[in-house]
Each structure stands twice: as C-alpha cells, then as structure tokens.
Amino acid sequence: MNSFTSENYLKAIYKLVEHGNDAVSTNAIAQKMSTKAASVTDMLKKLADKKLINYQKYQGVSLTPKGEKAALTVIRKHRLWEMFLMEKLDFKWDEVHDVAEQLEHIDSEKLISQIDKFLNYPKFDPHGDPIPDMNGKIQQQKSKAISKYKKNDIVKITGVVDHSASFLQYLDKSGLALGNEIKIKDVVEFDRSLHIVINKRSTLFISNDVAKNILAITK
Amino acid sequence: MNSFTSENYLKAIYKLVEHGNDAVSTNAIAQKMSTKAASVTDMLKKLADKKLINYQKYQGVSLTPKGEKAALTVIRKHRLWEMFLMEKLDFKWDEVHDVAEQLEHIDSEKLISQIDKFLNYPKFDPHGDPIPDMNGKIQQQKSKAISKYKKNDIVKITGVVDHSASFLQYLDKSGLALGNEIKIKDVVEFDRSLHIVINKRSTLFISNDVAKNILAITK
DNA sequence: TAATTAATTTAGATTAGTCTAAAAATATTT
DNA sequence: AAATATTTTTAGACTAATCTAAATTAATTA
After folding, report:
1. Contact assessment for residue B37 and residue B74, using Cβ atoms and an 8 Å cutoff
2. How far apart are CA A115 and CA A138, in angstroms?
3. Which of A48, A203, B59, B213 lies most in the core, judged by the most C-beta atoms within 10 Å?
C-alpha cells in the first residue's frame, strides 16, 4: 500500500501531466503540493524505487503504468466521495473538496464499489470532472471553455476549470450551475467579456477570466 | 487536532477504563494497541503534555475531561460509520470494523452530523453498542450476558461483548442476530452451557463461552 | 561560448512514532 | 524484610516526511 503522502504526490503528478506537460518538473510539483523542492526530490527517489514514476535526475518525471493506475484510483475515490457528499449529505459544491481530500485515502475496495453502486455509477462528479471506472478508464467530455464560443451559440455547462471555493461560490450566487443552458448573447470585442442568457430566463455579464473557467458543450 | 495515533491511544484508554480498571497500566495499553510498552510510555508523555490524560510515572493513566471528550468523539464516529456501512452499503456486521477504524479519523464536523441525520440519529450501532451524541452523552442499556439469566427467562439480544469477525460469523451462521427473542430452555449444570429457543422457532445449544459474549435484556 | 541565472539535488537536521536493550521502580514471594 | 519477579521507564537508534542552506547541473543571456 502507498502512504497518504505518496498518493498525494502521484495525484499531483497525474494532474500536471494531464494538463499538457510531458515530463513534470520538481518545482511544479513542489508548488502544487505546497512544499519545498528538496522534499519533492526526496519523495521522487522513493516513488522511483517503487516503480511508480520514471525519474532521472534533473530530467523531470512521468508516471509509470503502475503509478498512473494508483493515481487514477485516488482520483476515482475523490470524485465518488464528492458526489456522495453532495447527493446524499447535502453538501454544497464548494464544501466537498476538503473532506474528499481525506476520504480519498480510505483503503477498502468494497467501500468504494458500494459507494459507486449507491450513487448509481455516476460518470461525472459535481464539478463535471469524469470519474474513472474500476479499471481507471475515463469517459472524456469534448467540452471547451465558454470563452471560446461565439455570439448566439447555445451551450450546456458541463464543468469548471477553477475548483476554488470562492469561484464556486461566485457561480452559485450568479445562478450558474452544472447542466444550465447558456446562450452567448453578446461578446465584447475590447475585453472578451460576455453577455449571456441563463436557461432562457436571466441574463448575466461575465468577464473573460470567469468565462475561461466555465466548460460547456454545444447542445 | 490530535493525530490518528493519538486518537487511537485515547480510544484504547477509554475502553480500558470503561471495562473496570480505574487507572490503566502501560502494559494493558501496549497489548490493546499491539505495540511495545516503551512506545506507550513515549506516547503517554505527549498526551499528558497536551492535558489529555492524567499521568504520573509508574502510576497508570486516566483520561482528563478533555481526553474523554476526544475519545468519545472518535467512538461516536466509529459507531456511526459502522451503522452507515451496514444500513446503506450492505456491509455485514463482521465486515464493518476495519473500515470504520479508518473512517473514524476523518476530520469534519459537518460530515459526521450529516451522517447522523442520514441514519436518523441512531442510538445503538450494529453490535448493540451505544452511539455517543454530539456532546459525548451515552444512552446506556441495562443488558447483561445471557449466561447470567436462568431457565425459562425470555430475553431480547441487544449486543455482543466479543466483536471479532469469527464470533460474529458464528452468530450469523447460528441464526442469531440483534433484536432476536431468546428463551432459555435449559441450563446444563455441569458446564453452564445453554439450550435456547430463537424467535419461538429454532433451538440451539451454545457453550458458556459463547453465552458470556451475548448481551440481552428481559423483554 | 562564457557568464549569469534558475532549477534541482545533496547534506545535515528535525519531528512523530516506533523499536530493542538496559536501568529503575514497584509488586510479589518466601 | 530481603530476594526475586514483573512492570515501567530511559537511552539510543531507526524510518518517513519534512526543512534550510549549500552545492551542483541546466538553461538563458549577453
């Protein structure tokens, strides 16, 4: 079994690789983990010893198949727990992350498969992120940031990029939620801000910064 | 916040105090924790520094009010999680303990109060043990081991003393469960073994060893 | 390409929790 | 009450994870 700490490193590396980067730098990991580069180097050696990552001094790291499987298992657990907290225990979407960070390390195959069943095998979590299945398979959405759509496009919100509580609270307050239908009523040339219509009812102005953090697909 | 390890020590001390002993010995704790006396001494010093236990060298330990509160919080979480696993996720009563040992350390007040609500505020867990409320208050049952009842007594099973998987599996296989009505049909003088009737239907012979581990109240 | 800057690794310490072996205190026996 | 046995504590060491400061390697710039 991997320690909580190892699991967190693997998850961080997975997410850094996922978002572009081919080989991940020590500094990038240190930043994501809120720790120091020296600590990361120490841990990388241990993970390499366990064949969880490919690591050569100064050359950055990537996950081995074994490491990726481990990372995906943690991510699966995290996202299922988030779903459980929202669906069954009335947590709000900005409240689930911290608790799921703890629950994701609970070691019980039966527990997670039963939670999965209890939730009726969801494919996406409350933030629109895909939930890997038992084998680590992910069902990808072909959504993109609403900042990339153009005037008069009608789209459905499928997820967010920024998962911070403050961003999620802002969306709540603005009446934006997963599954909402959005029409791009106008795009301001100058700053790329948007005027949108939510569910054919209310209208809202959002900055380009916000638009870049909301994911959607064409209906 | 107390560490997982500290929480486990506090829980162990609570249980040893609960079952008789006034001041708990280092060795007793070591045995319960499956560790060495030297390790226990080290930890006792730390717990005493944090005012969680009363500790004087060579004199044994007891919990301070603060330590007892902490222990009861862990026990509350453990028992609520056991209940959740059985009621909602179809775990059997011999499967819940190990997972609950992990879940009891998750740190989130909202999580545990929501689980409590979700289960409709149960007062006893799947083994018949009382679940402390938010303030650490426990609703005691006045039950005793069925080995202490006499011929023709009719009682209801309310709990077990031994919580091991093997004992619980034996009870399952014998058709004994919490809430069952039991009639003491006969007591064998020689070895104090019992002949009982379960729910007015089947009969069963049980040894005194087993009888001492089944708790019940008169109907 | 040499010099400078930035990133990474090493060296050496620290903390929490654990251990073994030895010393000290307490309990039990005779 | 002295001798013996048991329990508990101390001393010193180990591991995992972390840190700071110094050294090394790689990348950038002049």
Report:
1. no
2. 18
3. B213
Residue with CA nearest to C8's C1' atom? A58
Tell me, what CATH number does A213's domain have?
A: 2.30.30.90
Task: Classify residue A81: in a domain, yes or no.
Answer: no
> CB of B57 under 7 A from strand D?
yes
Residue A186 lies in a domain: yes
Per-residue pLDDT at B141: 86
The torsion angles phi and psi of B118, rounded to 5 degrees, stand at -55, -35
Q: What are phi and psi of B154, to 5 degrees?
A: -115, 120
Q: Checking DSSP bridges between strand A53-55 and strand B154-160, what pairing results, if any? A: unpaired
Size of interface A-B (CB pairs under 8 A): 39
This complex has an ipTM of: 0.91
B90 domain residue, yes or no: no
Question: Which CATH number does the domain housing residue B35 bear?
Answer: 1.10.10.10
Print burial letters for A78-107: b (CB count within 10 Å at least 16), e (below 16): bbbbbbbbbeebebebbbbbebbebbbbee
Span A81-121, pLDDT tens digits: 999 999 999 999 999 999 999 999 999 999 999 999 999 99
Residue B136 tokens, joined: 């650490």
Domain boundary at A40, A63, A86, which? A63
Question: What residue numbers bound the domain in which B40 lies?
Answer: 4-63
Strand D nucleotides with an atom less than 7 Å from a protein beta carbon: 7-12, 16-22, 25-26
- Taking residues B85-99, report their average pLDDT: 96
Within an 8 Å CB–CB cutoff, is residue A3 touching chain B?
A: no
Scanning every residue of chain A, which has its alpha carbon at the shortest distance from the alpha carbon of B82?
A: A111
| Residue B21 within any structural domain of the chain | yes
Domain count, chain A: 2
